[in-house]
């Protein structure tokens, strides 16, 4: 059977990685995004997840769909996004939702986590054949201008305590995991923690950069309040506040293991090989 894949958020960094992987695998891809721009070969539907008509148009004739939730943390708005996806996706064979974060076991009161938890629960209860992916932090965050400048000067600043172990995931591996999930019926109805090939502390991450780049790199824990101030200049105060709230919660030792993972388990579940940390660094 020939499938048409819809990618919601196709012109974002995470959705774009899914698009690239599906195109590389030879699939027909339709993208839904606020700006109809991106890789050649994509059929574009311009629209917003808050617009039910645009979402219905994007799903028309689609057999498989990937959705990445936007960086919005207003509970009513994210609930509206989720309801529009569920209402339009009734005819799909498979849907893979990337909620863009891991979820603590208990509710936290932090919208950046709980809007994602609510979206995942609503989708999995809808009867749509779906898999929910819960990634940790993205390696590609370290390709942002603020990070690359610091790395060039021998520093790796990040708003996590140095001892936290993180299964850093690349966008390319997210694309591979999403593509693989479509053909893994055993993952249907599940919320799955995914992550990268190496689980490292901050100093171990810096040591990997040191080994590959050939100059000393030191990990520097950043106060989440200071991180929020800098991020607000790039993405605006509302998004920055939402993102920073996750790091404030993670500063609590009770949540120190939230972004850990078992790479071998992920590879076995999805049937892919994850990219080693040093290989990723060498390509940047």
From TrEMBL:
<dbReference type="InterPro" id="IPR008030">
    <property type="entry name" value="NmrA-like"/>
</dbReference>
<dbReference type="Pfam" id="PF05368">
    <property type="entry name" value="NmrA"/>
</dbReference>
<dbReference type="InterPro" id="IPR036291">
    <property type="entry name" value="NAD(P)-bd_dom_sf"/>
</dbReference>
<keyword id="KW-0521">NADP</keyword>
<protein>
    <submittedName>
        <fullName>Uncharacterized protein YbjT (DUF2867 family)</fullName>
    </submittedName>
</protein>
<feature type="domain" description="NmrA-like">
    <location>
        <begin position="2"/>
        <end position="247"/>
    </location>
</feature>
<dbReference type="InterPro" id="IPR051164">
    <property type="entry name" value="NmrA-like_oxidored"/>
</dbReference>
<comment type="similarity">
    <text>Belongs to the NmrA-type oxidoreductase family.</text>
</comment>
């Amino acid at each position: 059977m020939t499938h048409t894949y819809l990618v919601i958020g196709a012109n974002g960094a995470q959705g774009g990685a899914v698009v690239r992987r599906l195109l590389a695998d030879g699939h027909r891809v339709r993208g839904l995004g606020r700006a109809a721009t991106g890789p050649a070969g994509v059929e574009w539907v311009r629209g917003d997840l808050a617009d039910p008509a645009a979402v219905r148009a994007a799903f028309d004739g689609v057999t498989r769909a990937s959705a990445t939730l936007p960086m919005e943390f207003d509970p009513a708005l994210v609930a509206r996004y989720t309801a529009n996806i569920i209402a339009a996706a009734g005819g799909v064979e498979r849907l893979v939702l990337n909620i863009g974060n891991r979820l603590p076991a208990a509710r936290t009161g932090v919208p950046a986590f709980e809007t994602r938890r609510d979206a995942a629960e609503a989708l999995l209860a809808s009867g749509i054949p779906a898999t929910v992916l819960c990634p940790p932090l993205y390696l590609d965050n370290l390709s942002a201008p603020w990070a690359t400048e610091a790395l060039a000067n021998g520093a790796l600043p990040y708003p996590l305590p140095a001892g936290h172990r993180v299964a850093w995931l690349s966008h390319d591996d997210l694309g591979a995991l999403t593509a693989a999930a479509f053909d893994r019926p055993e993952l249907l109805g599940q919320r799955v923690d995914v992550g990268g090939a190496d689980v490292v502390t901050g100093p171990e991450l810096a040591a990997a950069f040191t080994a590959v780049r050939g100059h000393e790199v030191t990990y520097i824990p950043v106060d989440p309040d200071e991180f929020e101030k800098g991020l607000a200049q790039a993405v605006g105060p509302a998004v920055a506040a939402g993102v920073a709230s996750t790091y404030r919660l993670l500063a609590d030792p009770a949540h120190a293991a939230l972004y850990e993972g078992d790479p071998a388990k992920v590879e076995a579940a999805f049937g892919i090989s994850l990219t080693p940390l040093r290989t990723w660094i060498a390509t940047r």
